[in-house]
Records
---
Amino acid sequence: MRAATPLVQCITNYVAMNVAANTLLAAGASPAMLHAAEEAGEFAALADALTVNIGTLSPPWVDGMIAAIRGAKAAGRPWVLDPVALQASAYRSVVAAQLMDLSPTIVRGNASEILALCGEAGAGRGADAMDAVAAAEGSARALATARGCVVAVTGAVDFVTDGARAVRVSGGSDLMPKVTALGCALTCLVGAFAAVVPDPFDATVGALASFAVAGEIAAEKAEGPGSLGWRLIDALAALDAAKLESKARVTPA
């Protein structure tokens, strides 16, 4: 990551832009937060990866998302979908389905979002997960198989599958869900890893493990969610291969 400094186009929501950009910079990637349809497709062909987050939707943004996805695909670049709160409205559900039909390389969401993406009822109402990761593992496997993509269900213990392989990633901190935009930032980090790791499954696991380790380190001295936020960025910036290897907890599922 740090040697390659991949350029990652991040179409993400207003709440997440700053946190996501700082997360990528700390990890060694170069973020670009642009979404206008007039340039999104052209830029996606130049970037090394694309991430699309539907957190703050509007028709012009959707046009930009579609243009960027088409540009990324034409250039052979990986792209990651974060279907934020797709179950919250009919409009969001329609847009999520439309984007899924454009064949994401990787899908990252919480358990409630992954269940909704598969047409299953869950307890989620907004962007917060109201379902346990374990409840969505079967749906994630089915979705990955049907769509030919990697699916990551993130939560207390993350679950990653490509339909054939599956692992769980432990770590992080109970404070992390109390810091806004960390999940969205993780989606962008997944895109950065996908830009430099050829296997999307390995890229996703690497991103989630790195984030979990950084969160765990940050929590050691954090006094609350506010200090955890900036400490996580610092921990991610200080993370090296040896520390990741010694602290990552990845187990077969």
Note: The chain is about 50% helix and 15% strand.
---
Amino acid sequence: MKKTRCIMIQGTMSGAGKSLLCTALCRIFRQDGLRCAPFKSQNMALNSAVTRDGLEMGRAQAVQAAAAGVEPDVRMNPILLKPSSDVGSQVIVMGRVRGQMPARESYRYKKQLLPEVLAAYRSLADEYDVIVIEGAGSPAEINLKADDIVNMGLAKLVDAPVLLAGDIDRGGVFAQLYGTVALLEPDERARIKGLIVNKFRGDVEILRPGLAPLEQKTGVPVLGVVPYVRTAIDDEDSLAPALAQREAHKPLDVAVVRLPRISNFTDFAPLEQHPLLGLRYAADVRSLGAPDLVILPGTKSTLADLLWLRQSGLEAAILKLAAAGVPVLGVCGGYQMLGRSIADPDGAEGEPGACLRGLGLLPVETVFCADKTRARRTATALAGPFAGARLEGYEIHMGRTEAQGGAPFCRLEDGRADGCAAGQVFGTYLHGLFDSGEATARLADWLCRKKGLRPAQAAPLSHAALQEREFDRLAAAVRGALDMDAIYRMMEV
């Protein structure tokens, strides 16, 4: 039986660019006529996606699947850890919640999951020509290597050749790459077939004198220097540094509150593509300022982040802005916060019996429960400026919210109402509500009229169309930088 080809991207650290390199390879293999699937045995992120069959997986692998032109599948990310505190995470296995665990317990538990990880990988290998595997963090985390199931431990089990990527944008890339190789065991070093210098800015000729000594010291060839590519492709992690750096330089100012455990912030990426909408993230009262729209995003820990909002002074600032006529939009956890109260009788998020008052801007009440809602949705917006927009998104939440007034935000495909609107305050459980482009265009036009600006004439671009364009652009840059012939040869061994 022919062995399925695979290639694994590992990094010298978190944020070295593994996810985007894997995304690029998925698109390149698709362009080359191969049926390709991404795979990451364990992901830790608050940015997740819902599959067509209502299961939850890491957004990075869902994006990579889209680049490969295939439907996202939980087998591509069998274990997802969603941090709910500094020392604990919700553990999701094959798309379903297995429990809430402290870090030490989840670390021990993952060893029990190896059979499920391998079963998922082998099932994909039976269906696809190539598997593009993404590692996590660094393979040289020597305190964690004994029970590794995501870097070299997995590479050995599935016999994957490894490409090691270093991030030159952070500096010290030669030390990153050499130090990582040096800390590996001899059999692990032998598995590394190529080095990648990632995120390079400037003239590559200046870098070349250092590449030959690096190859000599590591015994591994440098397969390419990949340029720093700015893309509109969804980020893997809500802790991405760019999140704090985005600022508004356009006529309309949209401020997203950067909650401590913000999740699925990619909901708002489509707003950045509008010619008049400037999107920025605010973590304190001063940076919030006086925007044209305030957005409360989703969060993995609604009650804890609501307390933070209150203690930071942001709650009072948002209430003041709302009273002055500034529109406010809440999505998922942000929607829950905008209501009158949030109760957690069974301890779904923390201590059983906890109950907090909300901001009181919407006439709704939320009660948490153990069952997690996970579903893709299509809907038609009903509320104010969004009315008539076709929406495509998904729900991921553990609460049930009941409205005691106001109007529905949208009507789901099955006829049920979702969300609530009261005056210029809007709330919805629908992640991805801006993906179709229609809600973005209607919102921007409404904000323009409020501010006395001429609306944009550009037709709305769907998020899917934008991503397709960006996949091809990223693939072109990576294909031009890497020795793809060498990569194909190492996959055939």
Note: The longest helix spans residues 463-481.
